[in-house]
Amino acid sequence: MPATFRLSTATPTDIPRLAQFVNRAYRGDSSRQGWTTEAHLFDGQRIDEAGLADLLALPNAAILLCSGEENHLLGSFHVQAQGTVLYLSMLAVAPAAQNQGVGKFLLRAAEDYGWQHGCTVSRMTVISVRPELIAYYERQGYQRSGKTEPFPTDPRYGIPKQPLTLLVLEKPLKEVS
User: Fold this and answer.
1) Please, what is the Cα angle at 66 between 109 and 95, to 5 degrees?
2) Are 98 and 34 in contact (CB under 8 A)?
3) 3-class secondary-structure state, position 52
4) Cβ contacts of 116 within 8 Å, gap of 6 or more
5) Residue 148: which of 121, 163, 133, 126 has the closest Cα?
6) What local confidence, expressed as pLDDT, does residue 2 receive?
7) Which of 89, 5, 7 lies closest to 51, judged by CA?
8) Distance from CA of residue 29 to its chain's centroid?
9) Is residue 67 part of a domain?
10) Each residue of 139-153: pLDDT tens digit?
11) C-alpha to C-alpha distance for 104 and 84, rounded to whole angstroms
């Protein structure tokens, strides 16, 4: 595990490498090395370069990057302040770097981003058939809101192998110390 993590934000020049990184973390054989794989749930990619450009162009949005030694990309996380709500999506951690604190580092950085942008609640959606991922976020203080959302049908985010629903998880934000 790297002794320290470095936080930065993605720019348009990062999009090609970020698309490859996110897709390797979520889909395909390389993702199966980690516990957060979605390869058993989807065919196709997780996101394409145009989708990443769209995310970067949203108002009050950023893609946070966690790098380790020699600027090696270990994780990424999309954040967007929407009024008083911080919306989190697409936390990706390199399969070989999972269980080393990268996800927690990015989650804390995301919550700090929300606090700095006047957000009082952090919100995310998680695929309902991912109990291990839901449990991870619950250990980080997120709670099920009781709300659900349909899974997007746009094939550029992958083709579900079964019907899927998203659970909405929320957490009140406090200043990160």
Assistant:
1) 115
2) yes
3) helix
4) none
5) 126
6) 43
7) 89
8) 19
9) yes
10) 999 999 999 999 888
11) 22
